[in-house]
Write a structure and sequence with these properties.
463 residues; alpha+beta; six-stranded mixed beta sheet; 15 helices; 41% helix; elongated
């Protein structure tokens, strides 16, 4: 009797290795299942290993609402496949086209964002890991794409094998190995017609660039995937150093500290701050990161750099932040009357009185850090009194000189946020007073028809 040596399945062994190294045993694993070759083989392998490892394996299909009848066909195929092999199946529909228009991102980006939102929801709902079928070819495509676009070590590190509740067991398996194995098993799969459209950057890399790399060096995709692993180890160390810098640096000193930091760490700090506010998975390009670093190190008191997906970096005096990009709304113009004039849009309250205003023993801290109480002659007021926001080119004459408001604010080192809500007190002749600066010449006459004014950031009382 002949004894045949058992031949191990290399893909199955690779998945076992991955699951063992990452402690995936006795857990619910939801496989992102498009019906394509990669996701189908991953689902099949995980399902085959599930019982032995005490893992509950399910499939999750996301219909992005993009490919019409073809998308319906793929969803039906996925459902039938899971029914045939007794695999729990879930499906979700999203509207990537509407989301792309609303958030001003590409359809590819919109689909990716919505897909991962679904994954996150199911992970929380079932306390599950999400397995995606990224292969060594996907890893190589990612590295090449980011290299061409411009990136640092984080970009060259490619797709992480484990991130939060996501696992990617096929990163050391090539697309050819996947298809060969499916052919051996006799398992059918779906083909997305958009995968052949080379107007998409990744498809061009897949069909034109990677085959040329393989012709130059056999096994190029696997070698790129291995290089990405090594680069990612270096990046993890530097990322940790950048996190330590952020944890020990006060927000008020972030800009000056960041400007003195070595560029290797400074770029990572910028990227970390961007990742905290972004909704898009798109990473910053090298050019975008350098633009932000140049702004941080510049002498400009205020400046911004627009970043992907409606975010921006802002320098405002010594402050630096990355935030969602929203249109700044100037406060409204408001008519003033005697007594209290609450001005929440300007950050305070303006009191006008015909007698001196009694301040509390502890005066409120003024957000402009300057004088907030003045008096002026009511007889010299022309027309109506009102408050408005600062305008480009504003100037007025006080203490014998005509002064540009912009220069006054620059000299006072006032932040952009404070300038945006700075109250400018006017009559029909122009600017009368700006809190923190002087009253218009000719108004402080000392006659018996005086108006006393106080701009405060909290309530004060008048006699």
């Amino acid at each position: 009797m002949k004894h045949h040596r058992r031949v191990n399945n290399p893909i199955l062994e690779e998945i076992k290795r991955f699951l063992d190294e990452n402690g995936v045993r006795g857990k619910t694993v939801i496989c992102a299942f498009s019906g394509g070759a990669d996701s189908l083989l991953l689902l099949w392998m995980l399902h085959s290993l599930g019982a032995a490892r005490d893992n509950r394996v399910c499939a999750l299909h996301v219909n992005h609402g993009i490919r019409g009848e073809e998308a319906k066909r793929d969803e039906a195929f996925c459902r039938d496949f899971c029914l045939k092999y007794d695999i729990p199946f879930y499906s979700e529909h999203v509207d990537a086209l509407a989301f792309a228009e609303e958030e001003k991102v590409s359809i590819e980006t919109a689909a990716r964002i919505l897909r991962y939102r679904v994954f996150d929801t199911y992970s929380k709902r079932y306390d599950a890991l999400i397995a995606t079928a990224h292969t060594a070819d996907d890893q190589a495509e990612t590295v090449l794409f980011r290299l061409a676009r411009g990136t640092g070590l984080a970009g060259l590190g490619g797709i992480p094998p484990v991130r939060e509740h996501f696992i990617r067991p096929l990163l050391r398996v090539t697309a050819k190995q996947v298809r060969d194995e499916l052919a051996r098993l006799g398992l059918p799969h779906m083909e997305d017609s958009t995968n052949t459209d080379e107007t998409y950057s990744r498809n061009y890399i897949r069909h034109e660039i990677l085959p040329r790399c393989e012709a130059l060096h056999t096994g190029a995709a696997l070698r790129m995937a291995k290089t990405a692993e090594l680069v990612r180890e270096d990046e993890e160390y530097l990322y940790g150093e950048a996190m330590r810098f952020l944890s020990k640096t006060e927000k008020s000193a972030l800009r000056s500290a960041l400007s003195e930091l070595h560029p290797v760490l400074a770029r990572r700090v910028i990227r970390i701050l961007y990742e905290r506010v972004r909704i898009s998975p798109d990473a910053l390009t090298l050019e975008q990161t350098e633009a932000v670093l140049t702004l941080v190190r510049s002498r400009k008191r205020y400046g911004t750099v627009d970043l992907p997906a409606e975010t921006r970096a802002v320098c405002d005096g010594e402050l630096f932040r990355v935030e969602k990009r929203e249109e700044e709304q100037a406060p409204p113009t408001i008519a003033l009357t005697m007594g209290e004039n609450p001005l929440p849009a300007y950050g305070g309250c303006l009191i006008l009185s015909d007698s001196p205003i009694a301040l509390p023993d502890t005066k409120p801290k003024n957000i402009y850090n300057s004088v907030i109480s003045v008096s002026f002659s009511s007889a010299r007021i022309i027309g109506n009194l009102y408050v408005r926001p600062r305008r480009e080119g504003d100037s007025y004459r006080f203490c014998g000189m005509t002064r540009k408001l912009k220069k006054l604010l620059n000299d006072a080192k006032m932040s952009h946020a404070a300038r945006l809500r700075l109250p400018v007190i006017c009559d029909d002749a122009g600017i009368l007073w700006v809190p923190g600066f002087g009253v218009r010449d000719g108004e402080d006459t000392g006659d018996n028809s005086m108006i006393y004014a106080c701009f405060a950031t909290r309530e004060v009382t008048s006699d």
